[in-house]
Amino acid sequence: MNVYRTHKCSELSVSNLNEKVILSGWVDTIRDHGNLIFIDLRDNFGLTQCVIDAKQGIFNKINELTHESVIKISGQVIKRSDDTINTKLSTGEIEIKVNEFELLSKSEVLPLPVNSDIEYGEEVRLKYRFLDLRRKKLHNNILLRNKIISSIRRKMIANGFIEFQTPILTSASPEGARDYLVPSRIHKGQFYALPQAPQQFKQLLMIAGFDKYFQIAPCFRDEDSRADRSPGEFYQLDFEMSFVTQDDVFNAIEPVLYEVFNENNKYNRELPATVSKYPFVRIGYEDALEIYGTDKPDLRNPLIIKDCTNSFINSNFKIFNDQIKKGSIVKGIVVDDTADKPRSFFDKLNQWAREEGAAGLGYINFVDNSYKGPIAKNLDQDQLKLLDLKNNQSIFFICDKRKDAQLFGGKVREKICSDLNLLNKNSFEFCWIVDYPMYELDDKTNKVQFSHNPFSMPQGGMDALENMNPLSIKAFQYDIVCNGVELSSGAIRNHRTDIMYKAFEIAGYSKSDIEKKFPGMLNALKYGAPPHGGSAPGIDRIVMLLADEPNIREVIAFPMNQQAMDLMMDAPANVDKTILEELGIKLIDKN
């Protein structure tokens, strides 16, 4: 028998009445009722109420206990009185009448409370993260993370994927974010790099003849912090498949994501959230920008953006008409049940648009079969009818160059949705963004460059590269998006060296440039590479969505702060000079 406990603090119920039990845990709360002391004892699994009578010899010692001290108690399971039953606890019908107790570890006064959800500053929470993790909400988030990872691993193995562990010490990446470098003691002056992703290794595994790879992979990127991005490191469900098309990749991962979200759709919610059924919606990249103003659309937002340029061509609304002649377009967002709102509603939106750097936010209201507003007076009936408004609808306009109009339209869409509380918050809406452009023009040099991943297979292969305008070529590249959060980018890889040389040539790279930058991958592709592709949904972001947390820090056990510092372990830190000398490193004075 375990000397510290016969049961966990979540297990006891009326079925255990009169049993002699041993429990161990943390003192969550102490309540002194004069002749009785009540202790809520907490462990990883739950909470049990314990009661000590003043007649017992241990009463005074119990009364001296501090919160979060660790104790072991022995006692008898008794039933609570009807008026003290706590239906919110699994152990809420019983309590333990304590006969003996042992102080296992005394706690000093806490720098932050752990038995409440009171928010403390980032500095205190991260310095004492081991205490912060005792808080119920955060504790449960980390348990949720474990549940999700375990579920993903089971599903991937059941679907024939083989789990691999790829190197952590590898070579620096010539593309992407900044690397974290690790100096070599043996090879002074040379450095390893921590992997930004296992991209090349997973492709090499496909070339090695393995059919399906996956890994819950740690990735390291020297990037600035954001609410949905942890500085330094993150984890992703990295997977790759051989002899597949884009459809095969989608068909493999969609059921996994759907089931994981569906299994956890009740977490921290009063009602279970709905989850997009697969196959998930597919939206072309250009359509996403046109309709939603972003390539990460939140489909819970019912508002869409439409092109209204034709309503303003040759119109009397001179501001828009003149801009259209210079190459601008007009985008419009139709909103229901707003035309009868007070003028202040529209004025506030107009002021917000100006604060965002726009000239303003024009609008037209349609009430009782009549178009109202300053802009409406400058359009004829045919131009107004093109707007296709229904009764009590408003339409808001953005006029600018296409890309700017699209992106600001996306901001307006989010702003109006938020102001009118239109978002369906109790759902998880997935979509694929597909057909990314292979190339784009550099804003500064006006030269053709890769739009996204240069190692994606161009749609149409070599024929497209040789015969199409580079700016018209699409790539077999895709993103999976949920509730406006990009979970992952992925692609069907370019597995042919001749296509790769040609693709890079269009972007201004010579054959020797490629061979110098990517020798390992190019060499491997020369020995027979299967068509292959994959993706890598972010674990941290999946948990963040399911936990309904706005900041990714709340689903990571030991995150860094926004300045990429570990306050608890005091990292990064200075290193002893002798260690630097052994590594062949000399520090330069910042001044």
Give an overview of the whole structure:
The protein is α+β, with helices and mostly antiparallel strands and 591 residues long. Helices cover 28% and strands 24% of the residues. The chain has an 8-stranded mixed sheet with strand order 6-9-10-24-23-22-19-12, with helices on both faces. It has a 5-stranded mixed β-barrel with strand order 1-2-3-5-4. Strands 13-14-17-15-16 form a 5-stranded antiparallel sheet. A hairpin with a 4-residue loop joins strand 2 and strand 3 (47-53). Helix 7 packs across helix 11. The N and C termini lie far apart (64 Å). 35% of the residues are buried. The mean pLDDT is 94.
Give a short overview.
28% of the residues lie in helices and 24% in strands. The protein is of the alpha+beta class and 591 residues long. Helix 7 packs across helix 11 and helix 12 (461-467) packs parallel to helix 13.
Task: Summarize the helices and strands and which ones pair or pack.
Layout: E1 20-32, E2 36-42, E3 47-53, H1 59-63, E4 70-79, E5 94-105, H2 122-127, H3 129-132, H4 136-158, E6 162-163, E7 181-183, E8 191-193, H5 199-207, E9 212-221, E10 232-242, H6 246-263, E11 274-275, E12 281-284, H7 285-292, E13 305-307, H8 318-325, E14 329-335, H9 343-355, E15 362-367, E16 370-372, H10 381-385, E17 393-400, H11 402-419, E18 427-428, E19 430-434, E20 439-441, E21 448-450, H12 461-467, E22 477-482, E23 485-492, H13 497-506, H14 511-517, H15 519-525, E24 532-535, H16 539-546, H17 577-583
Parallel strand pairs: 3-5, 6-9, 11-18, 12-19
Antiparallel strand pairs: 1-2, 1-4, 2-3, 4-5, 7-8, 9-10, 10-24, 13-14, 14-17, 15-16, 15-17, 19-22, 20-21, 22-23, 23-24
Helix pairs in contact: 7-11, 12-13
